[in-house]
Target: Transcriptional regulator
Amino acid sequence: MKTVAIAYGSGSIALEVPEATESIAPNSQAPCVSEDELLEEALDRPLASPPLQELARGKRNAVILIACRTRRTGSDRYLKQIVRRLVEAGIPEERITVITATGTHDNFREQDAELLLGRELVGRVGFEGHDCDTPEKHACVGTTSRGTEVWLSKRYLDADLRIATGRVTYHYFAGFSGGRKAVLPGVSRKTTVRRNHSMAVLYHPEVRLNPATAPGVLDGNPIHEDMLEAARFVPPDFSLNTVLNTSHQITHAFGGELETSHRAAVRIVEQFDRVHVESPYDWMILSAGGAPYDVNGIQAIKALIGTYQAVRPGGTIFFFAECPEGIPEWLLQATEVQDPRLLRERIASGTLILGHNALWLEQIRRHCRIVMVTELSPATVERLGFQYAKADEVRGQLSRLTVESTHGVIAHLGNLLFATS
Model:
């Protein structure tokens, strides 16, 4: 047997596994140069765009879109580089506002300023969250070819200089995060977000997940293409996309035009984080990635979507996700609909919003057994359709595994996409 550390919250849980257990992890490479050098290249020698400082000259104010606290993007390091260039170009700090582009997620907290801005910028630049619920804070800029009315934040629209930032990794229905997602859903009105996200479900001839909206898929993905079309109505003047390793170091950074810089980062993610599996495993130990990726249930379960097919039908995933902030009641209510016909009727009628999450969980539960180690209550885990277990109970099950079993362990997930041959 050997000991492995499974990321859990801000710490880890030690498990004993058979010696032959395979360990799989995402991009763990160290940056080939310093983060400052990577960012200098991205901001001063960008792709399909003038340098950021050149774009900022003559502008009176700027907004910078960043991700919320449930994602690590490197914003605490790259924002100071961006702000310095804006100030040198003539935009005073008091006219620079950083907006957490949270979409419909209520994740903004003022106490996260140091975490997201970095200590140097706290109190020097504006810091606020996007409000998707107030119609008068948005303006309609057009309608996409798929019928999405695009309502964007006036704070974003009224800025002289608009900068979008984000981390690129796999996303369970948009294909990849980053890029255009800073605009839609980032600073969009809730009605716009819901219309876009509804494309994750096909309604005819039956309600089912749209196979074109999947992790790692951009071309032909209607959600991605709708997001991109929406962002092009009033595109960011500059976009910065980062790729991080398991230690949250920035290993790659691409600045410039929205789509060009995003696609460059996508190619790096595909190179390091897509895992090819020759044959499915009997069982897997899966970490949601520790904090902040397991801060709540809706973030944590995303880890299952790109990985569950690496386990054979009827196999077992031991899933570690702390979830100190709980799980949304709407998701629990959706997953409690055990009758597949009734679930689809509720999604089709609009009485169950964001039904794609329920459909994903239904598909995962049909495929394999999920044993969850978490701070959620046993009753809550049962409502998800999973089995609750304490770490010691998992240790007991692992000790009974035979060396003949095929197996896999992910010590620190981050974000992986498994592809079976």
Summary: The domain at 35-256 is CATH 3.40.50.11440 (Rossmann fold).
